[in-house]
Amino acid sequence: MSKQVAFGRNVVEEALRTPGRVSRLYLAKESRARWAEAVVAQARAQKVRFDFVPQAKLNELSGAREHQGVVAVVSPVAYVPLERCLKTCPEQATLVALDGVQHPRNLGMLFRTALGAGVSAVLIPARGGALLDPDVARASAGAVFQVTTVKCGNLAQALRTCRRAGFWLYGLDAKGERNVFDTSWPDRIVLVLGNETQGLRPGIKKACDSLVRIPLDGNLDSLNVAVAGGIALFQIFSQRTAEGGKRSR
User: Class of the 82-242 domain?
Assistant: First the structure.
């Protein structure tokens, strides 16, 4: 199985939550923080080999990116087939489908939000958008290791499959006919988010059952996709919590 690196305290801690994901651990020689001791304890418990190395080695392993004194060699996230994902979703579930989100930081932030908002899975396109890599893992603070991910060859077709499984498709669009704060969300939802500059493609808009918007004041016409996605997801989560609903996962 191919390997990749994960770096940064939160990312490595999240990776260690899944036994067998981390195969090697490197820490800065001068690491004396309590969190480093906790990471070493987790590594020992999982029989993961660890070494204390110079900063230069950590810089080399991480590509000179900010690593906070810890780098792990990990198994890459395993994508789950859509059909299997849909079969294991609970009766009340939220999925997030991304139509060409390009920036690794935005993708990572959306994964972190998805984890906090009880999202059952994130659907990403096989082409035309960012894929999961160390930068996305870092931006997500390790959430990519905890959220089910589906890679779709054809997003429009995947959305149709979700509809057949009983999901309602809501596209987030600045000109949507519904306000996210006034929408009564059904039990099974796919929230579809578009590209940072172009938004949702016409074919994806057409595939949605409804387009929803976030009302904005002043002259602002749109929000960053990660911010907008977070607002919508936590509105859904808040409504379900108020109604006594369960978390999606």
Answer: alpha beta
Report the CATH number of the 4-74 domain.
3.30.1330.30
Task: Kindly give, in sequence order, each residue whose CB lies less than 8 Å from that of residue 41, ignoring residues fewer than 6 positions away.
Answer: none
**Is 241 strand, coil or helix?**
helix
| Banded pLDDT at 32 (limits 50, 70, 90) | confident
Residue 46: exposure state from Cβ atoms within 10 A (0-12, 13-18, ≥19): middle
The encoded tokens of residue 73 equal: 């060699």
Structure-token pair, residue 154:
């054809």
Other CB atoms closer than 10 Å to residue 170's CB: what's the count?
25
Q: Model's pTM, two decimal places?
A: 0.88
Q: How far apart are CA 6 and CA 22, in angstroms?
A: 9
Q: Where are the domains of the chain?
A: 4-74, 82-242
Q: Which helix (H) or strand (E) holds 144?
A: none
> pLDDT tens, 138-164?
999 999 999 999 999 999 999 999 999
166: Cβ contacts below 8 Å, ≥ 6 apart: 188
